[in-house]
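Appendix B. One record, verbatim.
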Amino acid sequence: MSPSSSTTTPTWHHFERKVDEVKPSKTDINYLVMDYLITNGYPAAAKKFAVEANIQPKTDVDSVQERVDIRTAIHSGNIQAAIEKINELNPQILDENPSLHFALLRLQLVELIRSCSASPDGDISPALEFATSQLAPRAPTNPQFLDDLERTLALLIFPTETLTPSLAPLLHPNLRKDIATSVNEAILQSQGARKEARLRNLVKLRAWAEQKAREAKKDVPEKLDLGLTENIAKEAGDAGRNGASNNDTVMTNNGDIDPMIS
């Protein structure tokens, strides 16, 4: 809406007028959306969006499927399959990132505990054996590893319905999502690509610039809404949801658009 001299409609701040004068091209926005879909792993949505937007992806969309398969395995709790797929893709990813490897193994332990806790007489020996053989030898190499292992094993002691705030997140689906995101970024980095989509970087840059402007007491509106982010986010969200209906498993909360840009 344009500024109005009406007494019922506030006039625009001069900064908002300058922002309104900036008109990003539709092509640039389309490539931002495409980059988001490729980086975050929505190959079906990327293919459909490329046709609708009449643009050519700068990356082989089919190559994204490997990351999608790994993400799907993690989201479904099949961590062993995910680790095997990562090693098939590039064994150095986990060899050179012990923290990520430990996080995956700990998540595998969580899934074993989840399985044995599903019934009152569940057998906990598989979880204990896995912790002893896979995690215990790694724990002494890093204090955080040891703390994570101890907290995870505590799940065997306390009922799942009365877990403390420090333990409850271990059984929340967000843990799978967070580790899947870390794995996706590690794979992209190993392939010489950016770990994050340009769109996320732009949002971070905008937040940083606004913070610096306010710290410097610059004359900016009390609430700074550039509008561009919302438009791009809507397109990315629509494309992502369309992809989810075409066999793209979602990467973010509840299948919605990345919370950072929504």
